[in-house]
Amino acid sequence: MWLVRPALPDDVDQILDIAGAAGSETARLSSTLPRQRDVLAEKINYSMASLAGNVTTEAGRPKRFLFVLQSTSTGRIHGTAGIDARAGNSQPFYNYRRDALIHASHELGVSSRVDVLYPSHALTDQTLLCSFSITSELRNTEAFELLSRARILFIAGHRDWFTSTIAVEIQGVQLEDGSVPFWDSLGRHFFNMDFETADQYSGLLSKTFIAELMPPNPVYVTLLSEAAQASIGQPHELTVPNLELLQREGFRAGSYLDIFDGGPVLEARTDALRTLVTSQPKTLHGTFEDCGDTWLISAGEGSGFRCTLAKVSNTLEGTLKVPVGVWKLLGKTAGDEVRIAPCW
Fold this sequence. Notes:
Oligomer: single chain
Shape: elongated
Order of helices and strands: EHHHEEEEEHEHHHEHHEEHEEEEHE
Structural class: alpha+beta
Radius of gyration: 22 Å
Strand content: 25-35%
Distance between the termini: 18 Å
């Protein structure tokens, strides 16, 4: 079975294996997941403090959460997924906003539409899904769906911690040789560093350094290379399964782009997310039969949050029959409340 739970300090080495395995698909993907042990350990500790209620937005320390996907048979960690309750974490959260300008001359009878990118931090303080990483063999599996959607069930159970809108950055185009067309045509000229280095700075520190180095002026898309123009708003090939799952959830690409690689930024109304809308609370009861449809089932608050997949039987009285083994996995017993959502 698979279990999604909050990350713990003892998970740090296994998470590093996922995030930085040389030559792996996961390592080719940009992430807000640090690849330095001490920074990752700090991120895990901050997540634990957020779950314990020791971090408050009012004190200028927004909640940030990190979850792991664990195999219950082996104990191994196979993926991570995070939530920042407020994008930017008390600092500006930068993106490009894509818009258009009309250049016209009545005398010449010429009119042209030109795409322009405006530096923006309008998404600052919106809830942000982040740090999604999973081992390659689990892509397009039920474990993949569980890891992504468990975050929405966590939001459903802690709704007042999160904003009315929610966003997620999807990594943009990266070529086989590791080059990133959008970055090479734009960002590299101002940062004097390669894409991976800039991306790691963003994960280790914040995107505040962008404001210090990037020009505040609009960028005319036609001045970028053809490869960069073609990559704008396009996802990295390895992120397509995640993109499609998020689209089924209700996310849609808007006018914002990742400021480093030009990948799409998806947005949604939190209360309209499919998992949240279709989820329902139930009272837990036991059965020794392993039958029924497979559902996502979550339980627990804060650091006690757990989410798994299980075959369940509904009753008309609002109770839920699940195998007793699932009780132990969730840390619950008969009569406790759980939340379920149908698998897709």
